[in-house]
DNA sequence: ATGAAAGCGCTAACAT
DNA sequence: ATGTTAGCGCTTTCAT
């Protein structure tokens, strides 16, 4: 754990000025070949590398893209995978920063992280699932799957309403006519869009609207359990349920079990997200998947074009992918 | 994309000196309550945040842990998951840096990244799968799964020999007596350890050593295909093969198919690593898994104790987990 | 209680 | 070809 080798150490040992070392390191003109050789030799001997931090204070460009996440959970990690793959071969390095691990300050973490890194350390940022608007950023920013309003300029997310529509049409296609919906969190854009997709599918199928079939699940297990119970307690219970996320769908699966309902024979259930647990449940949960890899890839391409000085593009919606598994089947003939 | 708000902006608007602002931000004593209030107000108005970069040049501590990876691939991402979870609730933020994405300089990326970030930006580092020794680091370092020698002081990795032994004993337990081995890359420590575990298991079972049953597969598909062919061409071919990694095992699976051998009836195959493709193959590959989540968690705990000034600990070996799937079964009765 | 000044490691404009 | 200097944003003595 030796102390850091700085440009000063190199200059001293090579018996030149620091600016000469800097010129050599950055390949600037106006240094004698002999000097270049000697400096390089000292650099190797000492194992010197320029400090990213110090040089980023002088240079505007660092060739580093920052990925700002609240936390490294599976959703963010899968995005990171696509981002990393897309960045390979470009001149950019990748720095992922989780600035929300400390107990304090959880809301608005993205604004904080962006201010702390932007303008100096990173040339541009991709923010994963931001919770608040970013009014003015020091660097170009692309948001992935923003939770709140749509005021962020550049956005990549899944086609929530289209995905919900696919899920509902899947049930419709199996022959279901009475389809319930467990709604997501009121304050999140995605919840509204998913509900809209559900309504759209029913409308397209010419099925009259029944407000009783929509219950609030808040994207959370407990609330979804209650919602599912109310749905199944209906005088005319639904033969299928589209839940706004997999957590809720899994909750509904539990309620079906507690009622002695066979899934999918007595009740079909489909979720949204395709979280890992979805594939593990018994029976395996039918759902709709966000193409995370491609979303990350898309975000990178958008950011790179922004960094090349191109104009802001319209929001990018990537299609959701239907993943039919074992919780959806035709309704029991009656 | 407004320009960055600096401490100077705050000072100017609040009509105080920058040092006063700094004191307020860092909660130092000796500032009038009225001044504190005014400065805070301006900070909020302007949306100021201290620059990580600038402050890290003055402070020795940043409360940021750096994870240095060559690339964000599944192995590193899974580790990141464990690392992030373990760091939650501590005072540390997490910064993951992939410094190998640029085409040039791929070997020794870890030394480069460490020099560039260490000493200023990060308080300590966890390096994933380093390829070279780190002679002197500016900050405490823990290595996960180093590829080369064992000269790195603090290491976390899977128990390679133990895992190989488990795999071999699994085959032994099924009744196999003649077990081949496709060896990994000569220059990697893990390959030697896995071979050693294989030999140990056979020795423990009192099975005489047959050098013909070990072939070089280099951890690579093509070489492993050749190795598997040679094994199966033997006058007395093995009834089971332990491959040093899943790539090689999958290659062997292909060779079995090309020979018309049924797996696992005619030939049992087991790999090592549990890469995603392992679960996808037909039949699904039996293998041995590295507990990546726990390895990440362990590395964090080691690093934190190092940062608390504790002494270097001995290398940590985490047990590998046997994952029996469908490519291993008792040998055909003969 | 406040501010002026030095310095962290580095780069670039400007001498020499 | 080389060195001197200023300054990036910040924290920390050290005056005042």
Automatic annotation (TrEMBL), chains A, B:
The keyword Cytoplasm does not apply. Residues 5-59 form the HTH lacI-type domain. PROSITE patterns: HTH_LACI_1 (PS00356), HTH_LACI_2 (PS50932). InterPro entries: HTH_LacI, LacI/GalR-like_sensor, Lambda_DNA-bd_dom_sf, Peripla_BP_I. This is LacI family DNA-binding transcriptional regulator. Pfam families: LacI, Peripla_BP_3. PANTHER family: LACI-RELATED TRANSCRIPTIONAL REPRESSOR, LACTOSE OPERON REPRESSOR. It comes from the Bacteria. Gene3D superfamilies: 3.40.50.2300, lambda repressor-like DNA-binding domains. Keywords: DNA-binding, Transcription, Transcription regulation. GO terms for molecular function: DNA-binding transcription factor activity; transcription cis-regulatory region binding.
């Amino acid at each position: 754990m030796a102390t850091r080798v700085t440009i000063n150490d190199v200059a001293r040992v090579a018996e030149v000025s620091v600016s000469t070392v800097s010129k050599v390191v950055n390949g600037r003109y106006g240094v004698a070949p002999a000097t270049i050789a000697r400096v390089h030799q000292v650099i190797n001997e000492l194992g010197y590398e320029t400090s990213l931090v110090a040089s980023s204070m002088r240079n505007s460009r660092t060739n580093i893209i920052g990925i700002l996440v609240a936390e490294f959970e599976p959703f963010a990690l899968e995005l990171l995978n696509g981002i990393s793959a897309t960045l390979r071969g470009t001149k950019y390095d990748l720095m992922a920063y989780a600035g929300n691990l400390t107990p304090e300050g959880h809301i608005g973490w993205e604004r904080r992280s962006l201010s702390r890194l932007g303008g100096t350390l990173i040339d541009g940022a991709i923010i994963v699932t931001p919770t608040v608007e970013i009014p003015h950023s020091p660097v170009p920013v692309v948001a992935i799957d923003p939770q709140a309003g749509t005021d962020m300029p550049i956005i990549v997310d899944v086609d929530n309403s289209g995905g919900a529509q696919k899920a509902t049409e899947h049930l419709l296609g199996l022959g279901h006519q009475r389809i319930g919906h467990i709604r997501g969190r009121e304050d999140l854009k995605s919840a509204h869009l998913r509900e809209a997709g559900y309504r759209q599918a029913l409308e397209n199928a010419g099925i009259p609207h029944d407000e009783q079939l929509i219950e609030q699940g808040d994207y959370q297990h407990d609330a979804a359990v209650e919602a599912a119970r109310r749905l199944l307690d209906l005088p005319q219970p639904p033969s299928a349920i589209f839940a706004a996320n997999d957590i809720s769908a899994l909750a509904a699966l539990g309620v079906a079990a507690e009622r002695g309902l066979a899934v999918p024979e007595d009740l079909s259930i489909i979720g949204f997200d395709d979280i890992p647990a979805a594939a593990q449940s018994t029976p395996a949960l039918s759902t709709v998947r966000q193409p995370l890899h491609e979303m990350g890839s898309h975000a990178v391409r958008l950011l790179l074009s922004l960094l090349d000085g191109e104009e802001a593009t319209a929001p990018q919606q990537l299609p959701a992918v239907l993943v039919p598994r074992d919780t959806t089947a035709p309704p029991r003939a009656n």
